[in-house]
Write a structure and sequence with these properties.
The chain is an alpha/beta fold. The chain is built from 14 helices and 14 strands. The chain has two domains: about 1-190, Rossmann fold, CATH 3.40.50; about 200-360, 3-Layer(aba) Sandwich (Rossmann fold).
């Protein structure tokens, strides 16, 4: 069985890479003979390396204009409206897909999950599913989440879900919103973020780096609260270090400078930037407790039984911790100054480990059944 696994496989935000690698390993456990090809939906072919479309850029541009723009005489297509915002990314991804489909005979395509249903991905999802449907390749959307969608994004996803070869959609968050937008086209199932199973496939850091790990995010509106948190830890003489999911290095350095660290002190207080999902998991599991904004740093930590405190910059953070059974581990970012929220609870942690075991079994079963249902049709 030849499987095309689609997602942000080599994203700088390594939480997405953890998802893809976890799904890949889960499939390999279930189907030992599976040949899995990764397709990064942003056109990457490795970490920090993009598909080289230099020789085809002119051809690619002409192709887009002929197939998507010229047929629309008075009004541009929704696809072209999204395409024009990031032409280079679209071209390299489209040409990478063309190359993969030429070189591989694909039996089934699986979107690995993450916040796929948003404008940033909608055009490329639409294009990818259309190409796969032409080749009569069944498509699964597994454990996907919702993000910002414009009218154009909604139109393209509605067309996508209407394809006969889209066989299943499972949702990790925002089910009500999904049903409101697409419920008349497809009936989704609800599941958990598959990265919750990552403890089965990644090695834990055997050394204690510090008591607390503080995970940051590059969102200007939340810069002050992150600065206040780091300042609190610094004044309290608590053992801590700052870490990122891979994409927020400059923000982390800026924060440490703003709270008074200089030169070598910054390097000692900041975990080495992870380049692969293995390195991200290694960094996170070196802490006893995690305080973080990035959702997948929270998921990785809880997967390994580490208690967390998550700041709700996006409702998906609240959704994850609420579904996990720990809504009290969430905190809104507006006007936050209650650092008592960061207290540790060992009894809760013991319960967490059992909860993760239960949810991991559900995730494995959900993915397995989604694939089996397609293969038996």
């Amino acid at each position: 069985m030849n499987i095309l696994l689609i997602g942000e496989c080599y994203s700088e935000n390594l939480g997405d890479a953890v998802i893809c690698q976890t799904v890949k390993k889960m499939i390999e456990n279930e189907y030992s003979d599976a040949d899995i090809t990764l397709f990064d939906i942003s056109g990457r072919i490795n970490y920090q390396e993009y598909y080289n479309n230099k020789d085809y850029s002119i051809l690619g541009k002409c192709f887009i204009k002929i197939t998507e723009k010229l047929p629309i005489i008075l009004k541009k297509s929704s696809f072209y409206n999204l395409y024009k915002n990031n032409e280079r990314r679209y071209l390299r991804t489209i040409l990478l897909l063309e190359n993969i489909l030429k070189e591989h005979q694909i039996d089934i395509a699986i979107f690995a999950g993450g916040a796929m249903f948003m404008d940033y991905f909608a055009g490329l999802i639409y294009y990818t599913v259309r190409k796969l449907s032409i080749k009569k390749i069944p498509v699964l959307f597994h454990s996907c989440g919702m993000g910002y969608l414009s009218e154009d994004g909604v139109k393209l996803l509605r067309k996508t879900f209407a394809h006969n070869y889209v066989k299943n959609v499972s949702i990790r968050d925002s089910m009500d919103r999904f049903l409101q937008l697409f419920g008349d086209i497809t009936t989704p199932t609800e599941t958990y973020d598959t990265a919750i199973c990552c403890n089965k496939f990644f090695n834990r850091n055997s050394e204690k780096v510090a008591e607390y790990g503080i995970g940051v995010i590059s969102l200007p509106q939340h810069y002050k609260i992150q600065k206040d948190i780091i300042t609190h830890f610094k004044k309290s003489n608590i053992s801590f270090k700052v870490f990122t999911n891979g994409a927020d290095e400059n923000t982390a350095i800026s924060l440490l400078k703003d709270v008074g660290y200089i030169d070598n002190d910054i390097h000692s207080m900041l975990m080495k930037r992870p380049i692969t999902p293995e390195e991200l998991v290694y960094n996170i599991t070196g802490f006893e407790k995690i305080v973080s904004f990035r959702m997948h740093s929270l998921i990785v930590a809880t997967s390994f039984g580490i208690e967390v405190r998550g700041f709700v910059w996006d409702d998906k953070v609240r959704t994850y911790l609420t579904k996990l059974g720990y809504p009290e581990w969430c905190c809104d970012t507006d006007g936050y100054n209650d650092f008592e929220y960061l207290q540790w609870n060992y009894n809760k942690t013991k319960c967490l480990q059992q909860k993760i075991l239960e949810l991991s079994k559900i995730c494995e079963k959900d993915l397995s059944e989604e694939i089996k249902n397609v293969l038996t049709r």
